[in-house]
Amino acid sequence: MGRNTLNLGHALLQQGRQAVATLNNSPPMAEMPMVLTLDQLRPNPDNPRTSRNPRYDDIKASIKARGLDTVPKVTRDPDGDEAYIFSDGGNTRYQILSELWQETGDEVFTVSIACLNLGRAAYSALSDT
């Protein structure tokens, strides 16, 4: 009887199966770091703050001197387009980054590292199922 041999090199180069999570556009089930520009961010329309943050000037000076101290949490905007909104505070930081970009033209203020979380967009999608 003939013996079938496996060409291991050939087998390793074959296209494999793709993970289900990469096949659809569903939201991640855990926080995920990402790099976003100001153009991709929007203030959260449900922000409870109705007046300017009393520490606005201090926060702005701090961001100008050393950047963001904490990574903002964002989620997809449930009202459409490809934008992200802040899910856990961040509207003041967004406004300050926008101002610093306009004042200085320094691109360091246009890019932010954010942490994508489930936020309200994903929760509303999950509650519909």
Detailed description of the structure:
- The protein is 33% helix and 16% strand.
- By secondary structure, the protein is α/β, with parallel strands linked by helices.
- It has one domain: Conserved hypothetical protein from pyrococcus furiosus pfu- 392566-001, ParB domain (Alpha-Beta Complex).
- A five-stranded mixed sheet has the order 1-5-3-4-2.
- The longest helix has 14 residues, at 91-104.
- The model is unreliable at 18-23 and 119-129 (pLDDT under 50).
Task: Describe what is shown at a glance.
The chain has one domain (19-45, 53-127): Alpha-Beta Complex (Conserved hypothetical protein from pyrococcus furiosus pfu- 392566-001, ParB domain), CATH 3.90.1530.
Global Rg: 22 Å
Largest sheet: 5 strands, mixed
List segments where confidence is low: pLDDT < 50 over at least 5 consecutive residues: 18-23, 119-129
The pLDDT mean sits at 75
In the CATH hierarchy, the third-tier topology is known as: Conserved hypothetical protein from pyrococcus furiosus pfu- 392566-001, ParB domain
- Bulk shape: extended
What would CATH call the class? Alpha Beta
Indicate the proportion of strand residues.
15-25%
Terminal residue distance: 55 Å
Number of helices: 5
Architecture (CATH level 2) name: Alpha-Beta Complex
User: How many structurally independent domains?
Assistant: 1
Question: Residue share in helices?
Answer: 25-40%
Strand order of the largest sheet: 1-5-3-4-2
Number of DSSP strands? 5
